Amino acid sequence: MSQYIVSARKYRPDSFGTLIGQDNIAQTLKNSILRGQLAHAYLFCGPRGVGKTTTARIFAKMINCSNPSEDMEPCGTCESCLSFAEGRSYCIHELDAASNNGVEDIKTLMDQVRIPPQVGRYSVYIIDEVHMLSQAAFNAFLKTLEEPPAHAIFILATTEKHKILPTILSRCQTYDFNRITVDNIVKNLRMVASSEGVTIDDESLHVIAHKADGAMRDALTIFDQTVAFCGTDVKYQDVLRNLNVLDYEYSFSLVDAFLKGDYPTALTTFDEILTKGFNALHFVAALSSHLRDLVVSKSGGLEALLELPDSLKRKYKEQADRCPLQFLYEALGVTTQCESGYRASVNPRLHIEFALMRLSFLSGKLSQAAAPQQPAPQAAAVPASPAPAAPVAPVQEAEPAQPRERRTRASRSGAALSMKAMMEDTPAADANASKAEAPVPEDAVLKAKWPELAEFYKDKPRLASMLKSTALDIEAGEDSKTVTFRVVNDAQKDWVESKLLHELEGNYRKVVGSMKVYLRVAVTPDDSPEQKKIYMPSEQAKELMAHNEEVKSLVKDLELDIK
């Protein structure tokens, strides 16, 4: 059995023309060779697997080639090219800085630099992962890098440019390598598959390309893994199963369920995904990416932003035409918020399921907002029967004391439900219990009970202090009251509304003994005397001491003199 060579090594580019996705860098280096404008030090930086070391090898081989082609490509037949290909070149040296990162290693390199090349015009030193050099090694390397012998050229390669000393960066020509596009990866994989006699469709190649995340080496490695699993006849489903990638069909079916208001299907689909072992956060990220692609598909002229096969682009276009643009914007907001709050959630699964329910009711909410106002709200409850008056009359006679409850439930009988309606929908037993609820407290009682709310948050001194010092505005409704409290700025307002308002409202209702009290947050006007702007550190310290006993005790214990 012949020795197996992985595709990443077997199909490694050996000329500028075979480089993938780095055409601008290849052209710049070829022009510098053609004009004889070679620098003494180069820095190649960029993500892993994009061709930094490969480009350095091609460049080193080219500047020592005896018979270069007219377009500045190495001949591959001269002694310099052959010796490099066979691994016996004495003019091209590679150093792995990850394992040779000390001062002694650099001193050895500096001694070697003084020796002129035996074959070729230049001694080229390729230092890979140069950011791994120690501080002392960098300092020892500075002088040699600044004024090397005329025959020496240094090529440094790194994935973490920010870790390199500025004094090193200033001595090098820097080339930033880009991530390889999905189309370029697919094109190269298709060539490799043809050479290896592997049958694979474009959808599978795109899955591999997306999984590689812009790294050609990773793509070839994944391709080898896929072929080892599937054989020479690669199927799309086998690729998904082998790479543990979520099928596009899940996202398409979920969006269809959202448009129909079918939250049971959305929840069961999510459960199926979890059962297959997929990460919940990755699922939300995939759903966000799907919604983004729908927005792109719906907007004309943006097809180039979709790195997908043509068959999948058409499918995205068909679904995007069924989705209102406002729905897509709102849905993206829900999924983005779900991603940001996932790690802080005590129950991550419930967190995502709640987001799926919000998405399921989103389409109906937007439809209700866009529909013209109807004078008869009970029309939504009219059955499909041609004679609707017959069933309505008995209901009014049987439940004369509950017309409001009947209208509320009637308006929610359709699929177009808002999230607020779903949350307010209670069974009849809860409605009966609400009748016995205590009356809405007086304004004086609401203000007197407010400091008790701050006691819930004694473990959060800043929040408790804000609650104690805020001004209250009370607005009376028909059978409820809304208490408005104020914060300093819009950032605080947004944070309270998104993270804390629901919890504050629940605790305040416990304090006042009524479910007919609601909370609202507003920003204190700039000219309000209630909000004193504090600029000096001493003023800030005094303010903290006035509203926080812990700070006052700390100042006393440390015997600080605050004037």
Could you explain how this protein is built, in words?
- By secondary structure, this protein is of the alpha/beta class.
- The chain has 4 domains: 170 residues, P-loop containing nucleotide triphosphate hydrolases (Rossmann fold); 62 residues, Helicase, Ruva Protein, domain 3 (Orthogonal Bundle); 102 residues, Zinc Finger, Delta Prime, domain 3, CATH 1.20.272; 81 residues, GMP Synthetase, Chain A, domain 3.
- 55% of the residues lie in helices and 8% in strands.
- The chain contains 26 helices and 8 strands.
- The strands form 2 sheets. A 5-stranded parallel beta sheet has the order 2-3-4-1-5, with helices on one face. Strands 6-7-8 form a 3-stranded mixed beta sheet.
- α10 crosses α11, α12 crosses α14 and α25 packs across α26.
- The protein is flat.
- About 10% of the residues have low confidence.
Topology:
Elements: H1 7-10, H2 23-34, E1 41-45, H3 52-63, H4 79-85, E2 92-96, H5 103-113, E3 123-128, H6 135-146, E4 152-158, H7 166-169, E5 173-176, H8 182-196, H9 202-212, H10 216-230, H11 236-243, H12 248-260, H13 263-275, H14 280-298, H15 310-322, H16 325-342, H17 348-370, H18 389-398, H19 403-411, H20 419-424, H21 428-435, H22 443-455, H23 461-469, E6 472-476, E7 481-487, H24 490-512, E8 517-523, H25 537-547, H26 549-558
Parallel strand pairs: 1-4, 1-5, 2-3, 3-4, 7-8
Antiparallel strand pairs: 6-7
Indicate the CATH topology of the largest domain. Answer: Rossmann fold
Number of strands: 8
Structural class comes to alpha/beta
Our Rg estimate from Cα atoms comes to 34 Å
**Beta-strand fraction estimate:** 5-15%
How far apart are the termini?
Answer: 86 Å
| Side-by-side strand order of the widest sheet | 2-3-4-1-5
Identify the CATH class of the largest domain: Alpha Beta
Number of domains: 4
How would you characterize the largest beta sheet? Answer: 5 strands, parallel
The coarse overall form would be: flat
Q: What is the averaged pLDDT score?
A: 81
